[in-house]
Each structure stands twice: as structure tokens, then as C-alpha cells.
Task: structure prediction
Amino acid sequence: MTTPLSISYTSEETKKAALDFANKHDYPCNNQASTSTSLNLNYTDEYVELKDNNKNISIHIDFLAGDLAHRQQFGGGRGQSIAKAIGLKQGVKPPYVIDATAGLAKDAYVLACLGCPVTLLERSPVIAELINDAIRRAKYDEHFQSIVKTGFKVIAESSIDYLTRLIEKSKSDYPDVIYLDPMYPDRKKSASVKKNMQILQVLLGKDPDTEELLNISLKAAKKRVVVKRPKGAANLSDIKPTYQVNSKKTRYDIYIVQK
Ligand SMILES: C[S@@+](CC[C@H](N)C(=O)[O-])C[C@H]1O[C@@H](n2cnc3c(N)ncnc32)[C@H](O)[C@@H]1O
Result:
């Protein structure tokens, strides 16, 4: 059963954008003051946020402040485990990455800050709207403009559908790397991800088709598929990764593919 969600707005300025999204995706739309669903996508004058009204928590994405900006400035560059996992090397052009489970775009943004062109695939239109809102707000920032120029675009679609179409095309269109970080039901909750993950769990539940996603990714990547897992979690399927990169709380399973 999916959790009831509605769209809301806080002012006349944000009403049109809220109504457009609601009509496109067939959600009810109200003024914030009259929202009765447990979750709502709320268009404020500052940003679009996802609210859990039962727990009284909300999330929005900001590429220019908080965690993401800090990581961009002080994040450890190529020494980070994620950089090693995608095979980033000094003096070699950063790989083109498809992040097939974009979520709140944290990992995609880290990869973009490392110089990778990134296509973000997200099947939840609500989550894709949070990312697109953050992109709209960041677009006047000089550093962010260079990221967009290199390649940072969101496609609100199932990755399985997108990659199925991609493998029918020329291999030259394939990404070097496909990055996967599916929802993990027993994911350990560190203080910084707790609120985000709580809301994502309420909205999305767990991802039931991760094995299928891994299989299609192995066909569509030119060089490697990288799967992010919490330490100690089972592999996504019986196919063994070629090797693993470990960090404090996270394990990256690397599947090298030969094309
Ligand atoms: C754990 S979150 C990813 C978090 C992300 N790595 C980040 O840094 O914010 C998983 C996301 O993948 C999305 N997802 C899972 N399977 C998908 C699929 N087959 N196609 C598109 N999106 C998918 C879910 O909707 C969810 O938003």
C-alpha cells in the first residue's frame, strides 16, 4: 500500500507550479493549511520540500548549502572511496556515469564535483521534482553552472525501462559506469541520513526489483557497475562482484564488464 500524498503550496506565487505538478501526476492539491495526507510535497517560496506530517519532519535538496556544499569544498576529492569505486584516475578523463537510483542526488552530486558527466535516473516523480527544484535554485551559481555544462540532468523514469531502450542503441551511447544505490530495508541510520531515509522509506518502501536492475546495468555499462551497500549487507544477486572498495560504513561492489 502506498502512503497517501498530496501536493500543497504556501502562497499564490507557488500555487501554479504546485497545481501543474499535481495535475500532471494526478495528486490532490491544497493550500498547505488544509493538507490532510500524511505526506505532502509542499511548494514554499524558498524551495520544494517533502513533508512527513505525522513525524513533523521535512526534507529538501540544496546543492549550495549544508552537507553537499561542505562535501564539495572539503570532501577529499579523488581519495574518496566513491572515486576509487567508479575508477577515477589521475590524468584520465572522468567517466560518464549513469546514476540509476538518483534519490536525493547526494552521490550524483559528489560524482559531478569529481568531474564526471552524470545522468540521474529517478522513477519517483516526487523525488525527481525535489532534484529539479534544487537544480533550478542552484543555476545562478558559477560552480554549479560548470557542473551542468559538464552534464548533470535528471530523467524521471524507471532505470530498467531507460536502460532496456539504451541497450538497443549503439554501444557508443553506453555510459562508462552505472552506479546503483537502491533502498535497503535494514539500512543503518547514521545521524546525518536518518531524517532523509525515514521520509524516503515512508514514500517509497523498499526497491523490489534490484536484481533485475543489476542485470540490465551489466549489459548497458561499458566499463563497470558500482553498487553501494551498507557494510555487512548481502550482495544484490548471486553474481559475485569483481572486487570491493570499503569505507567506514559503506561497501562498494564493483562489477567489471568487458564489452
Ligand atoms: C537509497 S535512494 C538513493 C540515494 C542516493 N544515492 C543519494 O545519494 O541520495 C534509492 C533511490 O533509487 C530510486 N530507484 C530505485 N530503483 C529504481 C529504478 N529501477 N529506477 C529508477 N529509480 C530507482 C528510488 O526511487 C530511490 O529514490
Remarks:
- The mean pLDDT is 91.
